[in-house]
Design goal:
This protein has a single domain, classed as Lipoprotein like domain (Double Stranded RNA Binding Domain), CATH 3.30.160.150. Helices cover about 35% and strands about 35% of the residues. The chain has 3 helices and 5 strands; from the N terminus they run H-E-H-E-E-E-E-H. Helix 2 packs across helix 3. The longest helix is centred in the last third of the chain and has 30 residues. Together with LptD, is involved in the assembly of lipopolysaccharide (LPS) at the surface of the outer membrane. Required for the proper assembly of LptD. Binds LPS and may serve as the LPS recognition site at the outer membrane.
């Protein structure tokens, strides 16, 4: 019975928190309205994680099309890069800290080819400590950081696109 009581208490606390948050105007971060219905992604590598981040960040009403001619907005990737470099190491040569860097050079145009934003570079950098005895955990941490960094770049890109995209 004690576990049942604990579970009910947690459910009640969650319900009270949800009601409290809904009353204060709290809302999850929504993507900016783009003012377009279709977007084409061009120049990204096949299976690009950055392209996937852009797709995730797009508002629900915007569909991704394959042909630039069908798109109201064309996002052209010129360079989509991930780099990992050593920041510090021990006297014995063991790596203690890495620097993760994700960058995207892109331009924005209409589907008809009118340039809206010339080549622009967005970049995210994070330092990450490492330990050989926790290699698997540090790999998972690196993957989570990279996902967060790419998602942040995609949101920045869409905020920029929202300011220059042609209005319907």
């Amino acid at each position: 019975m004690n576990a049942l009581h604990t579970r009910r208490s947690l459910l009640c606390a969650a319900a009270v928190a949800a009601l409290g948050l809904s009353g204060c105007g709290f809302a999850l971060k929504a993507p900016p309205p783009l003012g377009v219905r279709s977007v084409a992604l061009q120049g990204f590598a096949p299976q690009s994680e950055m392209a996937a981040a852009v797709r995730r960040a797009l508002p629900r009403e915007v569909r991704v099309v394959t042909s630039p001619a069908q798109a109201e907005l064309l996002i052209s990737a010129r360079d989509d890069r991930f780099e990992r470099s050593v920041v510090s190491s021990t006297a014995a040569g063991q790596v203690r800290e890495f620097r993760l860097r994700v960058s995207l050079r892109f331009s924005l145009s209409t589907g008809q080819g009118k340039l809206l934003l010339p080549d622009t570079v967005l970049e995210q950098t994070r330092d990450m400590s490492t330990i050989e005895t926790a290699a698997l955990a540090k790999e998972v941490e690196q993957d989570a950081l990279l996902l967060e960094m790419r998602d942040d770049l995609a949101r920045q890109l869409l905020r920029m696109a929202a300011t220059v995209a042609p209005a319907r």
